[in-house]
Design goal:
- Strands 1, 2, 3, 4, 5, 6, 7, 8 and 9 form a nine-stranded mixed beta sheet that branches.
- This protein has seven helices and nine strands; from the N terminus they run E-H-H-E-H-H-E-E-H-E-H-E-E-E-H-E.
- The protein is an alpha/beta fold.
């Protein structure tokens, strides 16, 4: 496991955290978020789940922003990795099942075709408040790892089969100012550790020119 671009050492972050009463509210929030990301990395290690790289970067709100920072580390990451895009949707009517759909960021998901394949009613994006209730997060910070908060198993996870063919997949460790790159096998190992499974399928795509997606 490797950590790159941390501007200061881990112990320095802890020192700052212990002096939070001297920091502004924004600085305190930043330190708390960094601690969340670091604690989650430690949680993975405790579960025996390894990752190849951990990159510290400015907070991002979308895959395009992430790509800008990842490109700086092509020497380490190589080119066969996937920036994972997360769509959180639910059925408009009927059972109102919730789905977390994970695909490569370059795939534009055809939700109309997908609903036919999985046998559900029309899909729409969840509200920010529902996202918080379900996965304890906000738009721009959704990750596979947030499935740990779905204690009542309300969220059905669907992952694109193409992701399993990549050397590495990238997810935020509960904080969108850090990114973990791990093998697809280790991503599935994480799901097994939290007693969850993913439906793996060829998720239908639609021409990007005609689709506007709300990326969580």
């Amino acid at each position: 496991m490797s950590l790159v671009t941390l501007s200061i050492k881990t112990e320095d972050y802890w020192r700052l955290f212990n002096k939070m009463h001297l920091c502004t509210s924004n600085e305190q929030k930043k330190i708390k978020q960094i601690k969340i990301g670091q604690n989650f990395c430690q949680e993975l290690e405790a579960k025996g789940i390894s990752y190849s790289w951990c990159i510290k970067h400015p907070e991002v709100l979308g895959c395009n922003q992430s790509r800008k920072y990842y490109q700086r580390y092509q020497e380490y990451l190589g080119s066969d990795y996937s920036i994972c895009k997360h769509l959180v949707v639910h059925e408009r009517k009927g059972q109102k099942r919730v789905f977390l759909i994970i695909v490569d960021d370059e795939k534009s998901v055809d939700l109309k075709e997908l609903k036919e394949q999985i046998g559900c009613s029309k899909l729409e994006f969840v509200s920010n408040s529902e996202l918080d209730d379900l996965l304890h997060t906000v738009p721009g910070n959704v990750s596979l790892f947030h499935m740990k908060f779905d204690i009542e198993c309300k969220v059905n996870l669907i992952m694109d089969k193409e992701l399993l063919e990549k050397s590495l997949v990238a997810f935020h460790p509960l904080y969108n100012g850090m990114s973990l790159f791990l093998t697809p096998d280790n991503a599935l190992k994480y799901l097994n550790a939290i007693h969850r499974v993913a439906t793996i399928m060829d998720i239908p795509s639609k021409n990007k020119e005609y689709v506007l997606e709300k990326v969580m």
